[in-house]
Amino acid sequence: MNPKILQEIKIIDADSHWSEPYDLWTSRAPAKWRDRVPQMVERHGKQRWWFDGDIPIGLPIASSVIDPEGEKVTGTAFFDMDNDTVHRASFDAEARVAMLDVLGIHAQIMYPNVAGFGNQNFLKSPDEVLRLLSVEIYNDALAEFQSDSKERVLGMALLPWWDVAAAVREVERAHSNGLRGVVTCANPEEAGVPDMGTVHWDPLWQTCSDLNMPINFHIGSSKGNMDFFGQAPWPSFGEERKLAVGSANLFMGNARTIGNLIYSGIPERFPELKFVSVESGVGWLPFFLEILDHQMTETAPNELAELSLLPSEYFRRQFFGCFWFERATIKPTVEFLGRHCLLFETDFPHPTCLYPRDDIQLMEAFEGLDEADVRAILQDNAAALYRIDIS
């Protein structure tokens, strides 16, 4: 394959993050809510992201490993880096676009930090009005960022998933404001909401299907899934070892979400609805989907008789997986699933992000594939899914 193809393709990065500006909510909130919306201040002697007065929802870090000079730091040093000590591309639209130009990336999908990867942090307040206001402010700021980036950085809208009717209205509002998809919690049952296998969620699925708004499940999208320093690493490990094994396990967390979604019958009932497993890699998908295919008839031939396709077939039709650092696993995954289920990501500016761009690594990952495969994975699949102009 000719390496020049990487210069010809309009690469779309399907997963990056926003180190939210400290005044994102306070600068947009009505005066009566200004002291309660998310904000980075010192309270009780601690600098934190606080919510509803005194509820801590985030450390005073930018979750960025790119310093102001554009160098990448490794290890746990990023825990000491806030928005004042990281590259402006972590939080500023103009600087982000300039960074995309440096990296040779045409467009980028962007996810949150402060609210949680599935907006689970806002549930820490009992005030539903405050929660919804905080969601709306974030989504309005996303639309501004998207506009300021000239439609090159596309944020996925948060949902007030604890209230399905409100979630439906927010999908409609986000769509009308030009946003191209949503990100939500994978395990709402942890908060006492019916799990996603119930008809409780059908209005949301129908709305997202009708409006062509893909549903993105980012790793760590619920309290139970966000386990960097919890049960994944052994207690005897040091901080870096805990971060390493915790991250590896976190990347695999979406297997549970994919299995439950398919076995629930949601893809059967909503065949046009699209799902994305974000920041989870793809090399494990052939093995896991083959397990789901096998178990469908081995242990659940009666309850799953309603499904007209095998799990692997639903995935090929309606699901996408995102990869970034993998090399040896891309070709076998394409051979099992085909080229149309894979997306490329960088995870900029998070730890483990693909930065700076490494075309040698990309060519190694695509070894054995043809140019049509590479074009689909780097450009065409994401362009169609998120309605991105590549003309």
Number of helices: 13
Structural class: alpha/beta
Helix content: 25-40%
What is the average per-residue confidence, as pLDDT, rounded to a whole number?
Answer: 95
Q: How many β-strand runs? A: 12
Measured between the Cα atoms of the first and last residue, the distance is 23 Å
Looking at CATH, the homologous superfamily is: Metal-dependent hydrolases
Widest sheet, order of strands: 7-8-9-10-11-12
Q: Largest beta sheet, briefly?
A: 6 strands, parallel
Query: Beta fraction of the residues?
Result: 5-15%
Give the overall shape, derived from the CA principal axes: globular
- Output the helix-strand order: HEEEEHEHEEHEHEHHHEHHEHEHH
CATH fold topology: TIM Barrel
Radius of gyration, taken over Cα atoms and rounded to an integer in Å: 20 Å
The stretches of 5 or more residues where confidence is low (pLDDT under 50) are none
CATH class membership: Alpha Beta
CATH 2nd-level architecture? Alpha-Beta Barrel
Please explain how this structure is put together.
- It is built from 13 helices and 12 strands.
- It is of the alpha/beta class and 391 residues long.
- It has a single domain, classed as Metal-dependent hydrolases (TIM Barrel, Alpha-Beta Barrel), CATH 3.20.20.140.
- It has a 6-stranded parallel beta sheet with strand order 7-8-9-10-11-12. A 3-stranded parallel beta sheet has the order 1-5-6.
- Helix 4 packs parallel to helix 5.
- It is globular and about 55 Å long.
- The mean pLDDT is 95.
